[in-house]
Amino acid sequence: MSQFDIQRPVVELPDQDPDPVFSDDELVWTEEEKEQIEQYKAKYPEPDAAIMSVLWMAQEKFGFLPPEVIQLCADTLDMPFSKAYGVATFYTQYYKEEQGKFVLDVCTCFTCQFTGGYDILHYLEEQLDIHAGETTDDGMFTLQEVECLGCCGSAPMMQVTNGPYVHNLTKGKVDELLENLKKGELPRFTSVTLPQDEDEMGGNRRSDAETTDTYKTQPRSKTIK
Amino acid sequence: MEATNGSPTSKAGDWRSYERVLLPPVRDLHKLEVYKDEGGYESLRKVLNTKNIEPGDVTNAVKESGLRGRGGAGFSTGMKWSFMPEPDDRPRYLACNADESEPGTFKDRQLMEYNPHLMFEGILIAGYAMSIDACYVYVRGEYADWIKHMEKELEKLYEQNLVGDNILGTDFSMDIVIHKGAGAYICGEETSLLNSLEGKRGYPRYKPPFPAQVGAWSQPTTINNVETLACVPLVIEKGADWFANTGAEKHPGPVLYGISGHVNRPGVYEYPTGMLISDLIEEVCGGMRDGKKFKALVPGGSSTPPLRADQCDGVTMDAESLREAGSMMGTAGMLVLDEDTDMVSYLRRVTHFYSHESCGQCTPCREGTGWLENIVTRIDEGEGQMRDLDLLLDLCDQMEGRTICAFADAAAWPVQYTLKRFRDEFEAKCKASVHPVSSKTSSGIESAAPAT
Question: Which of A154, A201, B85, B179 has the fewest CB atoms within 10 Å distance of its CB?
């Protein structure tokens, strides 16, 4: 077949996709969700601005954003599908395809690069037997290489499914994380102690429950162990 | 290393006895109760309740303080505020830029983690100064945990009438809304941020019209960085003179240095501007990791040109000194690199970043960043030719200043300067390449001769 003999459109639109993932019965908002959407709309002078919040909500509900879910979001806000689709495809955190149960976003941007981010990425590739960008066969893990997550002081680091950050990664820590995730335990929010707080306050300044996992920004060894 | 404390070269003065103000050492300062006990929201009260403090006076105080934006460009904040037109019946907006996506920058996250109320108070004072109706805090989507924490605190502020209608019983009303992004570097660019806020793709807009005239939803809008706004209550509390006399003369104030890379104690440090780079690395961060030699510094995020170690001698962290040295202050997110660092590999990763994050609106940037990455990758993988170095520089010339926003410039600068300052490493890789090399093809940085 010639490469110009294009059989199907590059972008699948809802009416062109023969097999939507979700049925019409599933594509509805509950009453609470409808109320939440009204609250989102009230935050902005124009309802269209709520599209990012609504897409986030849809992603939490459906797991990812196939065209029919984007259509639902667009209809909810009474905006054209093309506009909602444009937003959903512009931002990297909206999943356009089905992901594993846990998405491991390993930062490899330059600070992480020079402190071992790629070692962590490659170690995870070995452990999960997949390449970056792929999902394991059992659907548990998707591994991704991502750009700077704004946590260079505790590099190398990663984020789990657009949620908690895991700092100062080592191979041991990655093993532990994978074990916990297999048991369904997400890491908790961890607070990285400011070096000046260590000196002046003897540790982390936050005492609330969500920050029980705190640690110092220790000097790290030259190779990831 | 010689102690430089108090020596004329350090503009930060006696930094060893500096007491932190942006992140003062107070336990649980992120909670409203604690923040108020520590004298929080007193600056706001002072501004709102003192009869003879007019909105214009606040703007003037910020102007006099010499506060310059901490988000990268370093523009005078008071000046920016004064671009807002006179209040009329149109709504007016403030956008707090918490997108923090410049690689190497992580200070705003620490501020939001440990002292978010300083930011909220700054937003309210700025709101009073510019008669703002609503402030949108645009936080990058990755900071999901921090958004949750801040929403909790914001709720308390509404309950205690510190945000909302008739704040503290005055006729000043203002809303604060936290908007969650979804992962796009370009949304840190102010007009792109506005488009994203309006529920569109984050494409930067043409300027002019500037956001002060036509901003969010076409209304007058000002965009300030988190740390910039957090400095505002300090200007009110301690006075414009105090602020202007802290740190470097032309770039004053306290600043959060986010130091990362090959140092012993990476992290966010608060000191006045104008700290000697050598002091920051050797004294503050406990020196280089594993006793290695210092090789290069990226002073303020990925788009600021990297400096060789010898170019950092006697250089201080403020806009003027860094400009003389051949770089920029940027966000003060400093990446310190040791002697083992491969600068070709560094540039390859940086060009990959820009290629990945280009929004795709303007052709020179969309295509150019991809080309830059391909060529640097070719060199890094040992398949480069000497003429590729000229090709890279030529490509940068075709990108710089030819696009709607400064993204293409930010992508071109690290290429130009890394190539200029670490040319030997690039040449070595090209000479060892699998392709035969003609000695005629490149005659150094100034060479404009087309390769044969």
Answer: B85
